[in-house]
Amino acid sequence: MEMEAARRNIELLNVQRSLKKNQRSLFIKRFLANKQIVFGSITLFLLVLFALLGPMLTSYDPYAMVVTERLQAPSSTHWFGTDNFGRDLFSRVVIGAQVSLGVGLTVAVLSSVIGLVIGLYASYYRVLDHVFMRICDGLMSIPAILLAIAFMAALGPNTTNIIVALTVVFSPYVARIVRSSALVVREQTYIEAMKAQGAKSWRIIFRHIAPNTISPLFVQASFIFADAIITEAGLSFLGAGIPTPDPSWGNILSDGKSVIYTAWWMVVFPGAALILAVLSTNLLGDGLRDLLDPHVTSNKKIKYRKNKLLKMGKAKV
Amino acid sequence: MKDYLMYLIKRILSLIPVLFVVSIIVFLIIHITPGDPATIMLGEDATTEQIEELREDLGLNLPLPQQYLNWVIGALQVDLGSSYFMDESVTSSIMGHLSPTISLTIISQLVALVIAIPAGIFAARRRGTIADQSVMGVSLLGMSVPNFILGLLTMLVFGVILRWLPVAGYAPLNTGLWNHLQYLILPAVSLGTLQAALITRITRSSMLEVLNNNYIKSARAKGVKERQIIYFHVFRNAFLPILTVIGQTFGGLIAGAVITETIFNIPGIGQLTINSIERRDYPMIQGIIFFVAIAYVLINLIVDLLYGVVNPRVRLDRK
C-alpha cells in the first residue's frame, strides 16, 4: 500500500512539473486561440503603426492651410480629401491618432498606477479604506464626461490638463477593482504568516498582495484606454479638449459637423479611426477577461463540459 | 416590512457621506481655476476697487471653509447661487432647461429597452448559434461607437439624405406629441444605442445564468410551455442585474445627453453646460454638476430600493 502511495506521489509530482513547463506555452496557445484577443491586438497594432509611420507616407503639413483646396473629396493626391481650411485630412487623421492613442495610453497607465496604490492601501488599512472609498464613491457618482468637462473648464483646454482630468476621473474605477480583489488576498493564511514573521507592511502589500490583483487590473486598464479615447474625443468635439488647431479625432469631427452636408469624408475617416480604436480595445479587453478569469465560461468550455457530461450518461446540461 | 424599513433607512443614511464628498469636489472645482472670477466677469479694464467690491458681493473674500459652508447651506435650500452672466439664479436656469433633457433621456431609455431586452432574450435562447453571435457582435459595435459619431451619422442618413425627420431643433410637448417626438427620435436613437448594447449583454448573460438552474429543469420536466418558462420563470429572476445596469447607466445617459444636445441643438441641460463653459460661468457649471450628481445618486437609490420590492431575498442578504 505504501509503495503504491509513494508511486502515485511521484507520478503526481512529474505531472505537476511537466504541467508547469507547459504552462507558458499553453498560455501563448490560449492567447492565440482567442479570436477576440488576436483580432483586437492586430487591429490595435495596425492603428499604432498607422500613427507612427503615417507621417512618412505623406509630405503634407497637417497645419498648412491652402484656401484654394478647401473641402476636396478624397483623391490620389489627398487620400482622405481636405478639410474646411484646405488642410490635408490624411495627415491630420495620422497626427490625431498619435494624440488620441497617446492620451489614452498615458491615462490608462497613470490611472492604473494611482488606482493600484490607492486600492492596495485601502484594502490593507481599515481607516484609509473608509476615507478612500468615500472619495471614490463621490467621484464615481458624477458621470465621467461631465466631471471631465468640469475639470477642463476649470483648468483650461490643453493636452496635459486632459490627461490630469481623465486620470482623476478614471483612477477610482481601478482602485475599486484592485481593492476588491486585494481584500480577498488579504484574508489568506500566507499573508497572516507573513505578518507573524514580522514582514513590513509595504513588503506584504507590494510583493505579496499586489501580484494577485494584476490580472483584473490589466483588464480594467484596457477598458479605461478605450473610455479615455472616447472621452477625449467627446471633450475635443465639444471644444473643451485638445485646443485647435492641433488635430485630434474629436477636433476633426467637430470641424466636420459644420460641413456635414457637403463633406462626408471629414466625418467618416476620423470617425472610422475612432470606432476602430475603441472596438479593437474592447475586443482585447473582453478576450483578456476570458483568458485571465477562469470563472468566465466561454462557449467552448460549455460545449466541452456538455460533451463530457453526455459521455458520463447524465442528462442534458 | 420592518426589515425593509431598516434597510431603507440605512441605505438613505449611506448617501450622506457620498453627497458630502460630491459637494466638496464640486465646490473645489471652481477654486482650482486659474484667475479670479471677479476679474473675469468685469473684464480687463475694471479698477481694483470695482473688483474688490464684486468679490465682496460674491463672497469671494471670505476664507475657503466659510465659502464652502455658505454654498452648502444655500444648496440645502435649493439655492445654488446666481449666474455670473444671466439675471437668473442657477436653480431656475437648471429647471428651465430640464424638460428637454428629461424627455430625451426617457425616450432614449425606452428605445434602448425595447431593442435590448428582446434581443438579449433572443440571443440567450439561441446561445452559440450564428444568431447569438451576430447579436453580440452588433452590441459590441454599439458599445464602441461614440454617441456623437452616431448622432452625426443618423443626422446625415435620416435628416439630410432621406429627409424623414428634422435634422435638428426641439419642440416642447405642448406643441403636440408627434411634433415633440419627431425632433427627439434621432437624438434618442443615437444616445440610446450604447445603453441598448449594455442592456442586451447583461440580459443575455443573466438569462443564461438563470437558465442553468435546477428549477428551470424541473419546470421543463413538468411540461411547462417554453414561452412561459422564458418569460415567467427565467426573465423574472434574471431581471435584477438588468435593473442594476439600467440604474448605473442612467447617469451616463444624462452625461451623454450633454453631447447629443449640442449636436441636435436641443435646449436642455447639456446645452446649458456648454454655454456656461464658453462663458466661464462657474456657479452655473458647479450647480449643474452638483444637480446631475444628486440626480444620479437618487436614481441609484430608487433602483436599490426597487430591488427589495422585486426580490425579497435581497433585503435579507443585506442585513
- Helicity level of chain B: over 70%
Radius of gyration of chain A: 25 Å
Low-pLDDT runs of chain B: none
CATH architectural name of the largest domain in chain B: Orthogonal Bundle
Sheet of most strands of chain B: none
Number of strands of chain B: 0
Protein structure class of chain A = mainly alpha
Description:
The complex is a heterodimer of chains A (317) and B (319). Chain A is mainly alpha-helical. Chain A is 75% helix and 0% strand. Chain A is flat, with a radius of gyration of 25 Å. Chain A starts with a helix and ends in a 6-residue tail after the last helix. At the A-B interface, α4, α5, α9, α10 and α11 of A face α2, α8, α9, α12 and α13 of B.
Blueprint (SSEs and pairs):
The complex is a heterodimer of chains A (317) and B (319).
Chain A: H1 2-33, H2 35-57, H3 89-124, H4 126-140, H5 144-155, H6 159-186, H7 189-196, H8 201-209, H9 214-238, H10 249-258, H11 265-292, H12 299-311
Helix pairs in contact in A: 2-3, 2-11, 3-4, 3-6, 3-9, 3-11, 4-6, 5-6, 6-9, 9-10, 9-11, 10-11
Chain B: H1 2-13, H2 15-31, H3 37-42, H4 48-58, H5 64-76, H6 90-96, H7 98-125, H8 130-144, H9 147-161, H10 177-211, H11 214-222, H12 226-264, H13 269-279, H14 282-310, H15 312-317
Helix pairs in contact in B: 2-14, 6-14, 7-8, 7-10, 7-12, 8-10, 9-10, 9-12, 10-12, 12-13, 12-14, 13-14
Jot down its keywords.
heterodimer; A: mainly alpha; 75% helix; 0% strand; flat; disordered C terminus; B: mainly alpha; 2 domains; globular
